[in-house]
Amino acid sequence: MAEMSQRTVETVQRWLNDHHVDEETKAELRGIETDPQELEERFYRDLEFGTGGLRGIIGAGSNRMNKYTVGRATQGFAQFILKQHQGSGQPSVVIAHDSRHFSPEFALEAALVLAGNGIAAKLYPSLRSTPQLSYSVRYLNASAGIVITASHNPPEYNGYKVYNAEGGQLVPDEAEQVISLIQEVDSFAAVKKLTREEAEQQGLLVWLGDDEDEAFINTVSSLSVNRERIASGLSDDFRIVFTPLHGTGNQPVRRVLEGIGFKHVHVVEEQEQPDADFSSVKSPNPEEREAFTLAMKLGEQVDADILIGTDPDADRMGAVVKNRDGEYVVLTGNQSGAIMIHYLLSQLKEAGKLPQNGAVIKTIVTSEMGAVIAEHYGAAVLNTLTGFKYIGEKMTQFENNGQHTFLFGYEESYGYLAGNYARDKDAVLASMLICEAAAYYKGQGKTLYDVLQELYEQFGYFLEGLESRTLKGKNGIAQIQGIMSDWRSNPPQELGSAVVEKVLDYAEGLDGLPKENVLKYMLSDGSWFCLRPSGTEPKIKVYFAVRGASSEEAKQKLKDLSSIVMARVDA
What are the pLDDT digits (tens) for 48-69? Predict the structure, then answer.
């Protein structure tokens, strides 16, 4: 144990001696007591509760996802909810979970801790999507929400995301209050908890089901802008291939697509059912081409017009379309976002329903192409920090002050939302919109690839790239901090033929946005790049964006910029 920190030694012993910790967990710890490095990784800190909640590897330990870290976090969150609702009746929390290992168990654990604190837990009995959780908080007038998910992380991970009464993930000032209250929970004995039987008898554990599902499906379907055209002929020879990648998207996406009139929806059979190991893919991430391997095979068999995939908690959607050579190409998040903005706003304008005060919200690392298109249709464009919680926060401000009518919000990382029903990105809604757009333009003899080329010709050849470096564990965190410190203290003066005209350090709280550890460099040729540590994974991400007069020029500019920047990052 000499190689372990004193904190680790003490915390391990505290877990082994605590009668609140079950024997199975203690046995797991005893099984690794001869591996000081593993114990150090599991116990050198408490699993960090960031602005999005918890996310980590499943296992015993204070730096792991398990029922004890979930229970402690829920106790702190319960204290936050009770403080927020003093004297205003009994608070309630909606809870949902995805298809990962221990997701049902962690969801029930959270519910029983809430019940132990006198808070009604409204729990979905089987897997539901993250956007449905966000919607349900609002629909049921709940005080807060919890969803157990690790999004598209590898199978050994799980997570715990918390939502406020607006249905949005906690913004920094709320998260800081919750973090402070969690830190006050200094022992497992301080976690209040009822048994399932006690909670049900006292009306503090309520099971949700068909009625809430139906309300969500109907609400999403109501945002279709061409439902009558789809049902009356556009879908007759339009074929969709869909993969839920073993997650929560299977039923809601199919119900919405079929509900608005799509007749030929082919689901990838090998990836249809929930599978906590995501055994048919290297990563259940619709941002990656490899995730669509089986979908492309099925697409060739049925001659599909579009392939769509949703991640395990169905908040991100990826789309694949045919190019002019008949080959399937994966659209980037920026490209899909630009197409949906163009489709949605053009259709609203054609129908005379485009509001004069309409607004599109995007993040600071999202392409400017969608912004240029939105402005073409007279919409205002607002930027937020990365994280859909900031887009949701702006939506609520619009709802309260009437300054803008929210039209569309999106991130480059495949997250999209239209409509005011939720405060998080929704792959169910995005699947509907992108398929609807593809069917509409097919009726004009175009693929979405053709539409994208027309947008490039009209608005400029925007091209973006993303590089990331995974740096795990205690040493990885230090490396990421070192990279950010180096770029912050020694900013480049020029890159290639372009001069660095401006450095935006969001750690200083720019443009009225919360402070965040993000650096963005604006170049004289209109390009930019941005360094940002991931808030949910052990990664540093580097975003690139260029604009060229042609596709070839944009590709070369992106290649040159990326190679120069990453050479320094890797050094």
Answer: 887 679 999 999 999 999 999 9
CB atoms within 10 A of CB 250: 23
- By CB neighbour count within 10 A (0-12 exposed, 13-18 middle, 19+ buried), where does 232 fall? exposed
Q: What does the pLDDT read at residue 2?
A: 46
Say which residue the tokens 């009770």 belong to. 82
Report residue 79 as tokens: 């204290």
103 labelled catalytic: no
Contacts of 245 (CB under 8 A, 6+ apart): 271, 278, 281, 284, 285, 286, 291, 309, 310, 311, 312
Reading the block at residue 510, the tokens are: 């720019």
How many other CB atoms sit within 10 Å of the CB of residue 18? Answer: 15
Pick the catalytic residue from 151, 235, 336, 413: 151
pTM (two decimals): 0.94
Phi-psi category of 214—alpha, beta or left, where left has phi over 0 and alpha has psi -120 to 50? alpha
Q: Are strands 380-384 and 358-363 parallel, antiparallel or unpaired?
A: parallel
Q: 3-state secondary structure string, 92-141?
A: EEEEEECCCCCHHHHHHHHHHHHHHCCCEEEECCCCCCHHHHHHHHHHCC
| pLDDT score of 536 | 67
At residue 333's C-alpha, the angle toward residues 327 and 337, to 5°, is 105
DSSP H/E element including 253: helix 250-259
Distance, in Å, from the CA atom of 518 to the CA atom of 530, rounded to the nearest integer, reads 7
Question: Which three-class secondary structure state does DSSP give residue 150?
Answer: coil
Q: Which two tokens stand for residue 190?
A: 């301080």
Q: How far apart are CA 257 and CA 431, in angstroms?
A: 8
In degrees and rounded to multiples of 5, residue 13 shows phi and psi of -65, -35
What residues are paired with 57 via a beta bridge? 157
Q: How confident is the model over 325-372, as pLDDT tens digits? A: 999 999 999 999 999 999 999 999 999 999 999 999 999 999 999 999
Band of residue 293 on the pLDDT scale cut at 50, 70, 90: very high
**What are the CA-CA distances from residue 528 to residues 35, 465, 501, 521 (Å)?**
45, 11, 10, 6
Burial class (CB in 10 A: 0-12, 13-18, 19+), 543: buried
First to last CA, the chain: 34
Is the per-residue pLDDT at 214 higher than 70? yes
What value does the mean pLDDT take over residues 286-300? 97
Banded model confidence at residue 1, pLDDT cuts 50, 70, 90: very low
